[in-house]
Amino acid sequence: MSFDSLGLSPHLLATIQAAGYTQPTPIQKQAIPSIIDGHDVLGAAQTGTGKTAAFVLPILERLGKAHEAKPRVLVLAPTRELAAQVGESVATYAGDTRLKHTVIFGGVGYQPQIAAFKRGVDIVVATPGRLLDHLGEGRIDLSNLTTLVLDEADRMLDMGFIHDIKRVMKHLPAKRQTLLFSATFSKDIRKLAGSLLHDPVEIDVAPRNATAELVSHRAVMVEKSAKRAVLSHLITNGVWQQVLVFTRTKHGANRLVKQLETDGIAAAALHGNKSQNARTKALSGFKDGRVRALVATDIAARGIDIDGLPHVVNYELPNVAEDYVHRIGRTGRAGAAGEAISLVAKDERSYLKAIEKLINQTVERMDVDGLDPAIIEAAAARDAEAAKNAPDKPAGGRSSRGGKPNNGSNNRGRRRGGGGDKSGGGNTNEGGHARLKRGSRRGGRRSGRSGGGNKPQS
Q1: Which of the listed ranges 132-136, 179-183, 272-276 does the model predict with the highest average pLDDT?
Q2: What span, in angstroms and rounded, lies between the C-alpha atoms of 405 and 402?
Q3: Residues 8 and 96 in one domain
């Protein structure tokens, strides 16, 4: 099956061809005709399977080429990076039309976003918190909306956005097309879908918790104090030019970046306590090769879509097995081979067993050749000395998985949407919006999947 058979107009087919894509992926084959026909859709797809194009292309088909002043499409995304990625996809495929779009999220100024609303936009891509800021001030009118998309709905529930989603719904017309995409059909997702979708077409293109077939999984059993030296050795001796590294916390990401730079490796951190400009600069540097190692937290990495990313390293294993699937879904995309390596300390072995059970696969254990034990000892000593001489960690930090705020955090009174990135973000999530502490009424179960596919990149 080719794109020609999916009901897309010649101008969209030409845009797809110009982007270098000829064959639709499974999610695109099933979702595009259903969306064009006006059905609500409940879709589950692995990370990296062309999901974004699967809803952007038919939405553009339904909108036509003419621009209207009031928004007709709203796409809600959990993080700034994912919102920006969706915005890039819209810009790519709507290039030869008069349709206008804007991307809005926290951590940046309000005025450019307000100016875009005043000029008129057809498509709004937004994170929930900043959108609610604008809705609360009456800056945007969604009464003409025809299509709502909830992208990565499982992560939005995980981040505690369910109540924000319900608040947004109050501003939307009851009669609309609603598309909900998630990594999996969990009980919480089905409950959300039941409240928002009408007689949806259900699409599940991959088995639960599947990983990309072209990704090799390996683990290095290593003492915690030796992890930094092992990572530097792998990057340097393997001549890795591009590696995405995952840590559990924002503070840990910052610390590892400093350590890698000490070893002569260009590195940058990506997490919710970074300003939007810093996050954009880090991601841009990683894509163009100025940054060899991008060190990220789980939530901030949502939306990273890099063609041919060869290496993903779990510097610290996630304590939720499903997050491993999301992490390694950054590599092995679009039919390319990828490598996922985990550095596993003694206290993380139970996490590794849980991951192996989830993916129904034994992760190969590997040795690191050519690493002098003296180098490990020297690196550990330097790190210990640096930690001893480092100033106290500033108040207001939070781990990427929702740990307790540090003592002294007094950020609760900040405006949502613009907060978090410029002041340290003690009570914000990775999308730059206010979040309640764990144990509150906000939250959801974590679940995920990943994978690859030859797709129009989103």
Answers
A1: 132-136
A2: 9
A3: yes
Q: How far is CA 135 from CA 117, 129, 284, in A?
A: 11, 10, 31
Give the residue numbers spanning the domain of 326.
Answer: 215-389
> What long-range pairs does 319-324 form, CB within 8 A, spacing at least 24?
319/248, 319/351, 319/401, 320/401, 320/446, 321/351, 321/354, 321/355, 321/357, 321/358, 322/209, 322/358, 322/446, 322/447, 322/448, 323/298, 323/446, 323/448, 324/355, 324/358, 324/359
Spatial neighbors of 288 by CB under 8 A, at least 6 apart, are none
Res. 21: pLDDT tops 70: yes
Let me know: does 335 contact 454? Beta carbons within 8 Å: yes
Whole-number pLDDT of residue 187: 86
Measured between alpha carbons, how far is residue 188 from residues 137, 156, 251, 336 in Å? 31, 11, 31, 33
Whether 413 shows a pLDDT value over 50: the answer reads: no
Does a structural domain hold residue 409? no
End-to-end, the C-alpha distance of the chain in Å comes to 21
Q: What is the mean pLDDT of the chain?
A: 81
CATH of the domain at 53: 3.40.50.300
Tell me, yes or no, whether 439 lies in a domain: no
Kindly state whether residues 133 and 273 are assigned to the same domain. no
Q: Is residue 440 part of a domain?
A: no
C-alpha span between 280 and 264 (Å, rounded): 22
Contact 356, 219 (CB under 8 A): no
**What whole-number distance in Å separates Cα of residue 2 and Cα of residue 160?**
39
| Token pair recorded at residue 409 | 């955090």
* Cα–Cα distance measured from residue 395 to residue 37, given in angstroms and rounded to the nearest whole number: 52
Complete DSSP assignment for 113-141? HHHHHHH--SEEEE-HHHHHHHHHTT---
* Residue percentage of the chain with pLDDT more than 90: 54
Of 139, 170, 204, which residue is a domain's last?
Answer: 204
* Domains of the chain: total: 2
Per-position DSSP letters for 191-259, written without gaps between them = HHHHHH-SSPEEEE-S-TT---TTEEEEEEE--GGGHHHHHHHHHHHTT-S-EEEE-SBHHHHHHHHHH
Claim to verify: residue 112 and residue 177 sit in the same structural domain = yes
Q: Mean pLDDT across the stretch 43-65?
A: 89
Rounded to whole angstroms, how far apart are CA atoms 304 and 86? 11
Pair (57, 196) in one structural domain: yes
Residue pair 196/177 in contact (Cβ under 8 Å)? The answer is no
State which amino acid sits at residue 107.
Answer: G
The pTM of this model reads 0.66
